[in-house]
Amino acid sequence: MNLGSPDSTAHKDVRRYLMEFLMDKRVIDKPYLSRLLLVGGIIVPFRTAKSAEAYRTIWTDKGSPLIILTEDLQKALQKQVAEPVEIAMRYGNPSVKQAFDALLKKDPAIEEIIAVPLYPHYAESSYETAVVHAKDVYKKGRYPFSLKFIKPFFNETNYIKALAESIRPFLQQDYDHILFSYHGIPARHLHRDNRQVLAKCITTAAYHDKDVAEHKNCYRYECFETTKLVMRQLGIPEDRFSISFQSRLGKGWLEPFSDIRLEQMPAEGIKKLLILCPAFISDCLETLEEIDMRGRESFMGAGGESYTFIPCLNTSPLWVDTLSGWIRDYNAGDERMILRD
Question: How far is the C-alpha of 128 from the C-alpha of 123, rounded, in Å?
Fold first, then answer.
């Protein structure tokens, strides 16, 4: 399961996609009528043309990069496993229902489906909404199979290795700093049930192992943990890397903001930058247009000398091996990667 994309760059398709995406109560957490007025009356009418133009800058002859890359991942994984593999998008096409129906068509005797939300970190606007949506489709369809989910894998050993090895070749070039740009979320989405932990969370510069229990399912903690584990594996000292958050929609989102940091870094002596977006498995609008294009323009315009975007895992062989390994382990009775409700 991945996020999704408009069917085309035509305004009607982009408008439809934005409405479905932004009307999700886990993306914009306002009461339905308020959300409808905000999204349908303000955001989408003013954002459709701009978003369509942004999609056009990354669109390929085959279509949306995110859809193509997810299809490529499906094909690569299918070569390594005997079980049928389908893809689904949280928003847009192909839908979860289409994926369920396609799997049943391939094998009407299927007893169990394992869904893999392609989000390493837990957030209600990404991982949680994917899981809830798939469960809703499953219940409404009264499907005969059981449904389970791979849990967030932000600290899973083989995922960390795959991410680290995707970075390693770029370390051979001259660079001053590595920036991990994670997708932003409203800070209020963290620790909704514990304001004291929330206040501590958003003011803590970094996290340490002792914080694990207190920050269960904390998106910010998980981002820091992924970064720490990857940099430790690559032997990069703490003064050579940092974290920021991109794609903010308003005030109160996680800081520091990627776009602001990219403008500030050259003045701080960071002239040669490596940047990656580990919140995404597949390259998409937020990585290709926002970071590789607009981010590059901001950094270089502020006095940067070199700007290297490190692609997402996409169909990295180690990442495909990681997915197939989880399947083999599960078939052998190892359920460590299975989400527990």
Answer: 6
pTM, two decimal places: 0.95
Residue 322 CB contacts under 8 Å (≥ 6 apart), including other chains:
156, 158, 159, 161, 162
Q: Which residues pair with 83 in a beta bridge?
A: none
Q: Which residues pair with 182 in a beta bridge?
A: 245
Q: Judge whether 315 lies within some domain.
A: no
User: Could you give the number of structural domains in the chain?
Assistant: 3
Contacts made by residues 39-48, CB under 8 angstroms, sequence distance 24+? 43/18, 44/15, 44/18, 44/19, 47/18, 48/11, 48/14, 48/15, 48/18
Task: Identify whether residues 172 and 262 lie together within a single domain.
Answer: yes
* 276: helix, strand or coil: strand
Residues 114 and 256 in one domain: no
Listed in sequence order, the residues at least 6 apart from 171 whose beta carbon sits closer than 8 Å to its beta carbon are: 234, 236, 274
pLDDT of 214 strictly over 90? no
CA distance 215 to 79: 38
Confidence class for position 216, pLDDT limits 50, 70, 90:
confident
Tens-place pLDDT, residues 48-89: 999 999 999 999 999 999 999 999 999 999 999 999 999 999
Q: Where are the alpha helices (DSSP H) in the chain?
A: 11-22, 32-38, 44-58, 65-78, 96-106, 129-141, 157-167, 195-203, 219-234, 258-264, 296-301, 317-331
